[in-house]
Amino acid sequence: MKRLAQLFIRRHSPHPDDASVVQVKNLTVRYDSGIALKDISFSLESGAQVAVVGPNGAGKSTLFEAIAGLLKPSSGEVHVYGGTPSGHVCIGYVPQRNRVDWGFPLSVNDVVMMGRYGRLGAFRRPGALDRKIVQKALALVNMEDLGKRNINQLSGGQQQRMFIARSLAQEAEVILMDEPLTGLDQAAQNDIFLILDKLKEQNVTVMVSLHDLNTASSYFQSIMLLNTNLMGFGPPAEVLTHQNLTRAYHGHLHLVETESGAMVVSDTHCDHGEHHV
Amino acid sequence: MTELLLEPFRYEFMVRGMIAAVLVGFVCATVGTYVVLKGMAFYGTALAHTILPGVAVGYMVGGGERRHLFWWGMIAALASAISIGAISQKAKIKEDTAIGIIFAGMFALGIAIISTVRNYSVDLTHFLFGDILGVSNYDLVLIVVFSSVILFTVFLFYKEFLVVIFDPVLATTLRIPAKLIEYLLFILIAMAIVVSLQTVGIALMVAMLVTPSATAYLLAKRFSRMMAISILIAVVSGVLGLYISYYVQISSGAAIVLVATASFLVVWSVRMITAFVIRQAG
Question: Per-residue pLDDT tens for A159-198?
Fold first, then answer.
C-alpha cells in the first residue's frame, strides 16, 4: 500500500544552486479573446520580492498562472529552478479572496493542511509532522490561535493570511499573491507587509500583484510594470517614470511630477480593484 | 412495538429492500456531500435522466427481462458522465445550457424507445419512480459490489476530492491531477445513480444525492462531520421511508424522499427560528 501511495507523489524536481528561481523567456500567452502577454522576459533571484502593477487586463493574473504552471504558454518558456513549473510543488498561489466559496464547512487548520496534500500523496492521512508544519505556518502569519475557527468567520485580512499560511505549509519557495491587498483596510494591509518581511528573512521569493502604485513604490524595492508587454522592471524610481506610466495606462492616471519621479494622484482605472470577466 | 418493527421482515422482498435502502442511502450521501458543496445538483438530475435510453435499450434487448438493466444503465451513465464533463470543459455555450440540452434529449430518446413496447407504462413507472420491493438477489449483489467500489474510492481519494472542489487552482499547484480527480468524481456520481435506480428511480434520484447532504450542511461545521451526518440522515430516511410505505401503502421511493425532505425542512426551520430569536434578543 505504501509503495502504491508513493506512485501518486509527484517527485519534486531538484533545485540546482546555479539556476534562477524564476526565469521567463519570451513568454507569450494568447486566449481566444486576444493576446494577454507578449514576449515577456525576466528572471528572479532567490528571496526577491516584486510588485507587479499594471491596468486591468494587463495580464498580471495570466503571468502568475503561467509561472505556477496553471496554463501553458502559447510560446516562450517559463522555468522555475531550471525546470518546468509543472514539475514543482514549491510554487504557492495565493488566490484572490473571492475565488473560493467561504461557505465550505472547513476550519482554518483544514485549509492550511491542504497545503500538505501534495507532499502526502494519495491514500495517506496527515500525521504529527504535518500538523506541526501547519501550526508553524499559522504562527508565522499570527493566526496560531485561530486554527479551529470556521473559515466563514474570518475577516478579509485573516482570509488572506490563512492562504499565505497554506502556501507556507506547502513549503513554497516561490509565492505568487494575486491582489492580496484588495479590500483590506490599512491595518490589515500592514499585517501582510509584516509577513512579507518575515518571508524575506526566510529567502522566499514573492511576486505580488497590486493596483495601488503608491503602495507598490513605497514597500517594494522591485517593481514590474505590465501591460501585455513588459513595460519596465527594476527599482520604483526607474520603472514608474512618467513616460512608462503613460504608455502602460494610456492616460488613465493623474500624474504629478516630483523630484523622485512621477507620483500618482489618482488612478481612474482601478477604483474598485480588478474586474475579471 | 417490536412486532410493528419486525413485521415487514417476514417478507424476503422487504429484507432485500431494507438492505438496498441502507446501502443506497450510505453511498448517495457520501458522494452527495461533494455534490452539494460543488453545487452540482443540476448535474446530478441531468445525469440521472440521461441513463433512461440505456435502460430502455436493455429493456428492449432483454424483452422485458430486468436482469441486465443495471449494466445497460451503468454504460449509459458512464458515457453521459464523461460526455457532459467533456462538454463543460470547452463550452462555447454555458455549461448548464449544454447539460439541459443533453438531459432532455437523452430522456426523450429513452421514452421514445420504451414507448415502442406495448403496455410499457408500468415498467416506465418503475424506471422513473423506483421499485425497491422488486430488488432481486442478483440486483442486491450488484448494489453491494458497486457501493463498495464507490465507498472505497472515496476512502482513498477523500482529501483529493475535497481540495479539487474547494480550490482547483491549489490542487494544480500541488500537482494533484485535478481534471482526473474531477472525472473520477463524475464517474462515482454516475455509479451512485445507477446503484439507486431501483430504490428511488430516475425522477427522484437527485433528492438522494442532495437532500441529506444539504441538511447536514446546515448542521455541521466540519467536512468530515457533514459527511457523517449526511450518511446518518440518508440511512434513517431509507429505513423509515420503507416502513412508512409498508404501513401507509404509498410508493416506497416517494416515501424515502419525503422523509429526507421533512428532515431538511425541520432543520432549516429550527435554524431560521433560532436566527430570528437571536436577532430579536440582540
Answer: 999 999 999 999 999 999 999 999 899 999 999 999 999 9
Report whether pLDDT(B130) > 90.
no
| pLDDT tens, residue by residue, A119-146 | 887 778 899 999 999 999 999 999 999 9
Give the integer Cα–Cα distance in Å for A21 and A173. Answer: 9
Residue type for position A210: L
What are the C-alpha distances in Å from A162 to residues A129, A149, A201, B97, B154?
19, 11, 19, 36, 27
Of A236, A209, A233, A205, whose CA–CA distance to A220 is shortest?
A: A236
3-state secondary structure of A266: strand
Is A232's Cβ below 8 Å from some Cβ in B?
A: no
Nearest CB among B156, B159, B217 relative to A117 is that of: B159
Distances (CA, A) of A211 to A179, B58, B101: 8, 60, 42
Taking CB atoms and an 8 Å cut-off, how many pairs form between chains A and B? 77
Return phi, psi of residue A206, to 5°. -130, 135
* pTM (predicted TM-score): 0.88
Distance from CA of A134 to the nearest CA of B (A): 16
Higher-pLDDT residue of B91, A197: A197
Q: B residues 165-204 near A, CB within 8 Å?
A: 166-167, 169-176
